[in-house]
Design a protein that fits this description.
single chain, alpha/beta, Rossmann fold, 5-stranded parallel beta sheet, 42% helix, globular
Length: 140
């Protein structure tokens, strides 16, 4: 199954430092037969570096973001990303173990298009990708 618009395939920037969680996300995408380009960044700073270098095109990009990471955590990454208007149309879905109210409020205040608790399931992925695509289309 391909997800995206016309000939443009959706690409994923997965920002997560936990290799087990990264592999679980990759496995779930393979299991539901999604043909996606997935790039992994181990923390928010690495993700910002990849984006600012142009290595990851913003078109058809969805960011899946953990909050609890070293060096630059997810909330710090969101603040830095939202300070740059070029990234406004990019949907960001938080995938985290944190069910803390302050984390949810901070993420929502920074315009995330979804907030999901790990571990995630097939149904969660479908809902996430649908929400991200709707968000991306509304922001264009």
């Amino acid at each position: 199954m391909k997800v995206g618009c016309a000939d443009s395939l959706l690409s994923i920037l997965l920002v997560d430092d936990d290799i087990v969680d990264v592999e679980n996300v990759r496995r779930e995408f393979r299991r539901i037969d999604l043909d996606l380009d997935i790039t992994v960044a181990r923390d928010g700073q690495q993700a910002l570096d990849l984006l600012s270098s142009g290595q990851i095109p913003v078109e058809n990009l969805v960011i899946l973001l953990d909050l609890n990471m070293p060096r630059m955590n997810g909330i710090e990454f969101l603040r830095a990303l939202r300070d740059n208007r070029a990234y406004d149309p990019v949907p960001i879905v938080v995938l985290t173990t944190s069910d803390a109210e302050p984390d949810r409020v901070s993420a929502c205040d920074l315009n995330v298009s979804g907030y999901m608790l790990k571990p995630i399931t097939f149904d969660d992925f479908v809902i996430t990708l649908d929400a991200a695509e709707t968000y991306r289309q509304l922001r264009q």
